[in-house]
Amino acid sequence: MAIQTKGKSRTPARKAGVARKSASKRAATAYMFDTAAETMPRAEIAKLQLRRLKASLKNAYDNVPFHRRRMKALGFEPGDLQRLEDLAGLPFTLKTDLRDHYPFGLFARARTEVVRLHASSGTTGKPTVVGYTAKDISTWADLMARSMACAGSRPGDVIHNAYGYGLFTGGLGAHYGAERLGATVVPMSGGGTERQVVLIADFGARVLCATPSYALAIAEVAEKEGVDLRKSKLEIGIFGAEPWSEAMRREVEARLGLKAVDIYGLSEIMGPGVACECVEAQAGLHGWEDHFLFEVIDTDTGKAVKEGESGELVISTLSKEALPMIRYRTRDITRLSTEPCACGRTHVRIKRITGRNDDMLIIRGVNVYPSQIEAVLVGLPDVAPHYQLVVERKGTLDHLCVEVELMPNVVPTSAQRKVVGESVRHHIKSIIGVTADVVVKEPGEIPRSMGKAVRVRDLRPKLS
Ligand code: DLL
In this structure, which long-range contacts are made by residues 227-232, counting pairs with CB atoms below 8 Å and at least 24 apart in sequence? Predict the structure, then answer.
């Protein structure tokens, strides 16, 4: 096994990642959060999942009228679950179910037992509200600490947290995880990018937590300010909350001088830390199967796809108290792999999330995800890795315009723009197979994100 493991001791100090060693000794140990849980044989994982799933279904049945009604309609009681496969007989839960029961209708605990609320802003209609008991918050901190350790962070690190604090789960999720790991957390939130650059350098951050698009914005401001973050103490980026490509990974790694690790999660299930890549392999996110059950389904039929085939990720929670989720349709498109990982962890790998099925554009019959366009742009000379896709309806057809930006060192003559525009158009057509218009903008003209980047401006008339 490529990682050093700890013993099986479950003393609180061990579990909380606070080994009783000097800080320097701790920093020298490749750290793993909970060996017993993370390297469990797969048969053991399945046994644990069945036990926990039964309890989670019972929690939902006993305490949430919505879930009880749906189970009763099928003549199903939680005790009827014999095998994990039986779960496929239960209906999916959708984002609209949370909205329809706004704000607390799917909670399985009295409001007075709920110590924290988070919510999605929700571009249309009501926000999605999620709640946590004190135990849920603690489990989340454990799983975030485990994720951070998996990403290569360890007790004693300075963790610069540029995920937004507030109703978004990124900021507080990473914050509690970093503290639980035994690191020093810098609670920056998003924005004030010049100051972020200064503090990353001055406080000696080893780990940067941010969305990949914001990490790139930080790199860009550092370059403009003449600060070489590649020479700073930064070694690891824990990036997620939005789709990003392998090409973007290489770009941020080169510009910040770190290893960029993908982290995944969603508020409805918990927040960040549902799954995380290991720094050893950087090849898919270990989904923490002792707390969640993952399925991948065909979006149209709702049936399970074979392992390795692409489809929509569906997640059930196994330990959540306040908001148990049964077969939540994430809309995220991915593949699962139970192949052994170089790091020795046995938990399933969720392959890079290519996008959400509601972000997928269909341009003259060709399915396109923004991350595919990103992968093309990032490889091209003179083109900055900032872009937006504008989708319009022309007659009966959808039309795609890709807005790109020149690199700051390129002289923006009209001839140069023409060359770049032509090259982008050609590569998108030959690699993805769609015809797009290309608008080449000046450096800095495409809006930068402080959190999740807005990649698509959809100008098509809304269906009523
Ligand atoms: O984005 C939680 C999070 C915070 C994850 C920080 C990672 C880091 P929501 O705001 O509820 O929660 O958005 C969840 O974001 O369903 C995916 O569509 C997308 N997403 C999250 N992580 C990734 C990722 C947080 N690594 C939604 N790759 C999810 C691709 C991601 N998409």
Answer: 227/197, 227/198, 227/201, 229/197, 229/200, 229/201, 229/255, 229/256, 229/257, 230/255, 230/256, 230/257, 231/257, 232/200, 232/201, 232/204, 232/205, 232/257
Indicate if ligand 1 lies below 6 Å from the C-beta of 330: yes
Give residue-wise pLDDT tens across range 165-203: 999 999 999 999 999 999 999 999 999 999 999 999 999
Q: Read off the pLDDT of each residue in 126-130 and give the average, rounded to a whole number.
A: 92
* Distance of CA 44 from the midpoint of ligand 1 (Å): 29
pTM of the model: 0.92
Write out the H or E segment, with its range, that includes residue 137. helix 134-150
The two three-digit tokens of residue 146, written as one number: 């485990």
Tokens found for residue 74: 């099928």
Distance CA 235, CA 256 (A): 9
Q: Using a 6 Å cutoff on CB, does residue 238 contact ligand 1?
A: no
Residue nearest to atom 29 of ligand 1 (CA): 266
The finding on whether 380 has its CB within 6 A of some atom of ligand 1 is: no
Angle at 72 between CA 67 and CA 75, to 5 degrees: 135
pLDDT single digits (tens) 211-226: 999 999 999 999 999 9
Give the separation between CA 284 and CA 353, rounded to whole angstroms: 9
User: What CA–CA distance (Å, rounded) separates 429 from 436?
Assistant: 8
Nearest CA, atom 15, ligand 1: 241
Do the Cβ atoms of 329 and 312 come closer than 8 Å? yes
Pocket test for ligand 1, best of 211, 266, 360 (most atoms within 8 A of CB): 266
Q: Confidence class of residue 206 from pLDDT cuts 50, 70 and 90?
A: very high
| Ligand 1 contact, 334 CB (< 6 A) | no
Closest CA to 277 of 324, 234, 334, 232: 334
Q: For residue 72, which of 96, 106, 64 has the smallest C-alpha distance?
A: 64
CB 240 within 8 Å of CB 209: no
Angle at CA 78, nearest 5°, toward 74 and 79?
Answer: 115
For residues 111-119, give the mean pLDDT: 98
